[in-house]
């Protein structure tokens, strides 16, 4: 199966390095013929993102801090100057003060609550609003979420609350944009060791727990996420919108510790 994304082009937001979920998705899209542009957050990331983009034949790199609405306007104007229309956007962005991704949720400060909601949830709305103007013939928008939106995961705290807002935003955006044939979906990925994940308290314990207890008895890879991302962004998923699709080795269906799981 090749060429699923032939003739399609889109923006990948949230690539930090070759461990990023965005990288897993970008690779699969590129393999299937998609043309990619990348946005990155500030000069410090440019030197990591540039060689990765080059590997996939892209020289379109746009600086964009999604918490800054002017920066978002400029980023989409820059993209529009290169490509008048796009077919898809990947939003793989989340952030919170890591000192509050441990301990008690009630210790979350107002400033960090608002910042986390802004960067991790509202930014999807702000991106979708700008992206739709470049999707006159329809398109597909994909974001990344985590099970901590649905159930309490130790240390995930305010990020879980932001992911719940993100998941509900997916549904409202899907309804707003459905008549324009713009689909909006999320992948709820199982835990994967990335830069962002390193900020979460006891993350290795969460990883091990998922490996021992998920139906597939393993954790997922960025390639697993990439395959599902390709499906969501391609015409294979033409009838799918407003969906929160779990790519977590089945972890979300279990109700108890696996019988054969050792203590950790
Ligand atoms: P990552 O660190 O590779 O990517 C996070 C990205 O967010 C980085 O590129 C960073 O630059 C970007 N970002 C943060 N604040 C930003 C801002 N203000 N403006 C622009 N960009 C900003 O980590 P990742 O795990 O690949 O995270 C990607 C997405 O996947 C996040 O939404 C994360 O919550 C989600 N996710 C991750 C996991 C996991 O276990 N790693 C599981 C489920 C969902």
From TrEMBL:
<feature type="binding site">
    <location>
        <position position="93"/>
    </location>
    <ligand>
        <name>NAD(+)</name>
    </ligand>
</feature>
<feature type="active site" description="Proton acceptor">
    <location>
        <position position="146"/>
    </location>
</feature>
<keyword id="KW-0275">Fatty acid biosynthesis</keyword>
<feature type="binding site">
    <location>
        <begin position="65"/>
        <end position="66"/>
    </location>
    <ligand>
        <name>NAD(+)</name>
    </ligand>
</feature>
<comment type="pathway">
    <text>Lipid metabolism; fatty acid biosynthesis.</text>
</comment>
<feature type="active site" description="Proton acceptor">
    <location>
        <position position="156"/>
    </location>
</feature>
<protein>
    <recommendedName>
        <fullName>Enoyl-[acyl-carrier-protein] reductase [NADH]</fullName>
        <ecNumber>1.3.1.9</ecNumber>
    </recommendedName>
</protein>
<keyword id="KW-0443">Lipid metabolism</keyword>
<keyword id="KW-0520">NAD</keyword>
<dbReference type="GO" id="GO:0004318">
    <property type="term" value="F:enoyl-[acyl-carrier-protein] reductase (NADH) activity"/>
</dbReference>
<feature type="binding site">
    <location>
        <begin position="192"/>
        <end position="196"/>
    </location>
    <ligand>
        <name>NAD(+)</name>
    </ligand>
</feature>
<dbReference type="InterPro" id="IPR002347">
    <property type="entry name" value="SDR_fam"/>
</dbReference>
<keyword id="KW-0276">Fatty acid metabolism</keyword>
<keyword id="KW-0444">Lipid biosynthesis</keyword>
<keyword id="KW-0560">Oxidoreductase</keyword>
<dbReference type="Pfam" id="PF13561">
    <property type="entry name" value="adh_short_C2"/>
</dbReference>
<dbReference type="GO" id="GO:0006633">
    <property type="term" value="P:fatty acid biosynthetic process"/>
</dbReference>
<dbReference type="InterPro" id="IPR036291">
    <property type="entry name" value="NAD(P)-bd_dom_sf"/>
</dbReference>
<dbReference type="InterPro" id="IPR014358">
    <property type="entry name" value="Enoyl-ACP_Rdtase_NADH"/>
</dbReference>
<feature type="binding site">
    <location>
        <position position="163"/>
    </location>
    <ligand>
        <name>NAD(+)</name>
    </ligand>
</feature>
<comment type="similarity">
    <text>Belongs to the short-chain dehydrogenases/reductases (SDR) family. FabI subfamily.</text>
</comment>
<feature type="binding site">
    <location>
        <position position="41"/>
    </location>
    <ligand>
        <name>NAD(+)</name>
    </ligand>
</feature>
<feature type="binding site">
    <location>
        <position position="14"/>
    </location>
    <ligand>
        <name>NAD(+)</name>
    </ligand>
</feature>
